[in-house]
Amino acid sequence: MITFFVPGRPAPQGSKSFKGVRGGRAILVESSKDVGPWRERIALASHSHAERLLGGPVSVRLDFVMPRPKSAPKRTTPPAIRRPDTDKLARACLDALTGICFHDDSQVIDLHATKRLAQPDETPGVHITIEEPA
User: Fold this and answer.
1) Buried b vs exposed e over 50-71: b needs ≥16 C-beta within 10 Å?
2) Contact (Cβ atoms closer than 8 angstroms) between residue 125 and residue 75
């Protein structure tokens, strides 16, 4: 089992924008400017935890801790029902883990992702658990 926490502001992997054609190839640009640095943080953190590249089926759990808005109540924590979408957050993580923890994200046969707001004084980021099913 591989388990670790990546601190930071989780960024979604959204759609790509078509910017034209160069040399017969389409130029696509990621719509979120934050997703590249976020994927790099995940990749860097996973390098120190992944002992080997997993080759078979894998189960992945992603627990996102979103930054707490200043407008959130001090004594309670409301649900994280605003953007970004949980599936787009998961997509960015899986792409970052590909080639480091497992060969391809098509190996993920079980994916569980949650999203919540940080508690007061809690660090935002993502808790990642990867394991090979028995």
Assistant:
1) beeebeeebbbebebbbbbeee
2) no
User: How many Å apart are CA 2 and CA 115, to the nearest integer?
Assistant: 20
Two structure tokens written together for 76: 């309670």
State the pLDDT at residue 26: 78
What does the mean pLDDT of the chain come to? 92
β-strand 108-117 against 58-66: which pairing, if any? parallel
Predicted confidence (pLDDT) per residue in 58-111, tens digit: 999 999 999 999 999 989 999 999 999 999 999 999 999 999 999 999 999 999
Residue 43's contacts (CB-CB under 8 Å, 6 or more residues apart) are: 96, 97, 100
